[in-house]
Design brief:
The complex is a heterodimer of chains A (319) and B (323).
Chain A lengths: L2 H26 L14 H9 L6 E4 L4 H6 L4 H8 L23 E4 L6 H14 L6 E6 L6 H12 L4 E7 L2 E2 L2 E2 H4 L15 E6 L3 H16 L5 E6 L17 H8 L3 H11 L5 H24 L17
Chain B lengths: L1 E4 H15 L3 E5 L15 H5 L4 E3 L4 H13 L3 E6 L9 H8 L2 H4 L9 E6 L14 H4 L6 E3 L4 H13 L4 E6 L6 E4 L12 E4 L4 E5 L2 H15 L4 E5 L2 E3 L4 H10 L2 E8 L4 H13 L8 E5 L8 H7 L3 H11 L1
Parallel strand pairs in B: 2-3, 2-4, 4-5, 5-7, 6-7, 10-11, 10-13, 13-14
Antiparallel strand pairs in B: 1-8, 6-12, 9-11
Helix pairs in contact in B: 1-7, 3-4, 8-12
The chains are: A alpha/beta (319), B alpha/beta (323).
Chain lengths: 319, 323
């Protein structure tokens, strides 16, 4: 990788981090409505993963989607505008935090019914196979989604049809407030792929380089016809499930322990240790990220509300 | 014009659309090697091949979910759910995904998707396999719900559904497949969202659709012998609902009976009668009557089942009540 690429990964991670921190503030001020699920702590997962995709590879994910949206190339402006419900948002203010998408960037959304987007990923991959396009569909979901029936139907069918899907379980240890071992018959999520004869592995999701390199290798295998694979990426969300989470289900020490393992800190040490970048250069990136996020807030705040006509637009393509 | 069965008309529409557009493909349980549970896709697998006539596992959420995903990539999937009773297993994908994605993502996602399924009772399949829950699906903005009552409409509406860029639930009645009627040849299209007069009359308006069109027609024949001329409006599409022919008819007859196979509570008749009362109250000379299924899960026993389903006599009695 070139230095600029290393810095770009860093930039994406700090933009996500800062965007989420600012979103939390705006939520508390009442400027963001609905639910807000922050990606803080999980930045290395989607940053590493999405950096490994080709433009033709599709991405679909669950409702904790701000980071994935940024990694897929949606501007911070459009993400923030969507959070504020503005018509300049990537979903015209009609989807909100949980429903970011930009199909022109091959990002097929943010889906908020747990596990429901997995069967849709099967269809996205089928569409590529049907048209002889050599592309992989990357479908991300949380550990909580591995206990619902959709996962079974989707993984089974993807294997029956041998579709190019990379199933990515972001295991952040909790489905809302229920720890994995309290909800799943097996704590090691990747074992679930064995029931479908599907190649699988688990990696550390706090190390962006490990995620990226693993994803590059697996995506290439799938592109070359390996069939679907499952990748479990272990991570941790530093904040609550959503903004209204009293966090009674975990101890402060546990959170602190993981925070010492901060993916951005790990990557900083990596870049400085390998002399890819100096501390000053990374600080400069932090400053740039701050500017990007502040400009996004300004853009979102200055953007117009959707017009009343928007209410009835897009119910159908054809009226 | 050829006289075709409903099955042949639907099959013909599917076949012609697949010949016309290589992006149209079928997926579902037993659609391929078996030839379709109701034999609608008989011969398709051999002609179009396994890629375009895709057998699936018994996996309704994955069938509809995969159809949605494929539609998002620009294909035109026709997903078959063996019966509408199994659609409940795929309910999330029908109502939370298919009906929502275009709107929720600000118009950027387009789903040219058809879900074909069968509805209706009368075959002694007991409570879980005999429902007519069509109205439930018509509740959701974003979904189009089509339910033809004649072979010609079935052909024309299925073609329109396949060419539509919106998700369409296409409901066939399980006991109408052998019903015969004149079907125009070639590229015959019936637009979605248009009700039609199936029989002209001056005395009373019956509003109905699907299998109950047949029942209503029989009732109308008997009523005609007694000097009562019935006008029958076939809704054909439950969403978007076209009330204009209904209003026009009632303005002439001033009397209305609504006949549906599903339960009366919160049903098609409830919606149609509410719209009549809301919009043309002054034209109504007698309280609207609704003929519908008795409010019980359908029993297996043939006599009991027939007691629960709307019969010709029920329609005749309702018409006489409003006269």
């Amino acid at each position: 990788m070139e230095k600029l690429e290393y810095l770009d990964l860093y930039q994406q991670m700090v933009v996500i981090r800062r965007l989420e921190e600012v979103a939390a503030e705006l939520y508390q001020k009442g400027k963001i409505g609905g639910f807000l699920h922050l990606y803080i702590g999980q930045e290395a997962v989607s940053t590493g993963l999405i950096s490994a995709r080709r433009p033709e590879d599709r991405v679909i994910t669950a409702y904790r989607d701000h980071g994935v949206a940024i990694n897929c190339g949606i501007s911070a402006n459009e993400v923030m505008a969507e959070l504020l419900g503005k018509v300049t948002g990537c979903s015209r203010g009609k989807g909100g935090s949980m429903h970011l998408a930009d199909v022109s960037k091959n990002f097929w959304g943010g889906h908020a019914i747990v596990g429901a987007h997995l069967p849709i990923a099967v269809g996205l991959a089928l569409g590529d196979v049907y048209k002889d396009r050599k592309a992989v569909t990357i479908c991300m979901f949380g550990d909580g989604a591995t206990n619902i029936g959709f996962l079974h139907e989707a993984l089974n069918l993807s294997k029956v049809w041998n579709l190019p899907v990379l199933w990515v379980c972001e295991n952040n240890q909790y489905g809302m407030g229920t720890a994995v071992e309290r909800a799943s018959a097996v704590s090691e999520i990747r074992q679930k792929a064995c029931g479908y004869g599907m190649k699988n592995e688990a990696i550390n999701g706090m190390d962006v380089i490990e995620v990226r390199e693993t994803a590059l290798r697996i995506l290439e295998e799938i592109r070359n016809g390996s069939g679907p694979q499952l990748l479990e990426i272990d991570t941790y969300r530093f904040r609550g499930h959503s903004m209204g989470d009293p966090e009674r289900y975990r101890k402060a020490e546990e959170v602190h322990q993981w925070q010492e393992n901060d993916p951005i800190g790990i990557y900083r040490r990596y870049l400085i240790g390998r002399e890819v970048a100096t501390e000053a250069e990374l600080n400069e990136q932090d400053g740039l990220a701050e500017q990007i996020v502040q400009k996004a807030v300004e853009f979102a705040e200055a953007s117009p509300e959707p017009s009343p006509e928007e209410l009835y637009a897009h119910v159908y393509v054809e009226e | 014009m050829a006289r075709l069965t409903m099955r042949e008309a639907i099959s013909q529409a599917l076949w012609e659309e697949m010949e016309r557009d290589p992006d149209v493909f079928i997926l579902g349980e037993e659609v391929g090697v078996w030839g379709g549970t109701y034999a609608v896709t008989k011969g398709f697998y051999d002609h179009f091949g396994a890629e375009r006539v895709r057998d699936t596992p018994i996996s309704e959420a994955a069938i509809v979910g995969a159809a949605i995903g494929a539609a998002l990539t620009g294909l035109r999937p026709v997903a078959e759910l063996m019966t509408i009773n199994f659609a409940f297993v795929a309910m999330d994908h029908i109502v939370n995904e298919a009906a929502k994605l275009h709107y929720m993502f600000g118009g950027q996602m387009v789903l040219p998707l058809v879900i074909r399924t069968t509805s209706g009772g009368g075959r002694q399949l007991a409570a879980t396999h005999s429902q007519t829950p069509d109205a439930i699906f018509a509740h959701f903005p974003g979904l189009k719900v089509v339910a033809p009552g004649t072979p010609a409409d079935a052909k024309g509406l299925l073609k329109a559904s396949i060419r539509s860029n919106d998700p369409v639930l296409f409901i066939e009645h399980a006991t109408l497949y052998q019903t015969r009627g004149e079907v125009p040849e070639g590229d015959y299209i019936v637009p979605i969202g248009k009700s039609a007069i199936q029989r002209a009359g001056r005395d009373v308006t019956i509003i109905t659709y699907s299998k109950m069109l047949e029942i209503s027609m029989k009732a109308a024949d008997q009523l005609a012998r007694e000097g009562i001329e019935t006008e029958i409006v076939d809704l054909r599409t439950l969403r978007p609902l076209d009330m204009e022919p209904v209003f026009d008819s009632i303005k002439k007859t001033n009397r209305a009976v609504i006949v549906e196979e599903g339960w009366k509570s919160y049903g098609v008749g409830a919606e149609v009668s509410a719209r009549i009362y809301e919009q043309i109250f002054d034209y109504i000379d007698a309280p609207i009557r609704r003929v519908a299924q008795k409010e019980v899960p359908l029993p297996y026993n043939r006599t009991l089942e027939q007691m629960a389903l709307p019969q010709v006599e029920d329609v005749i009695a309702a018409v006489k009540e409003v006269m």
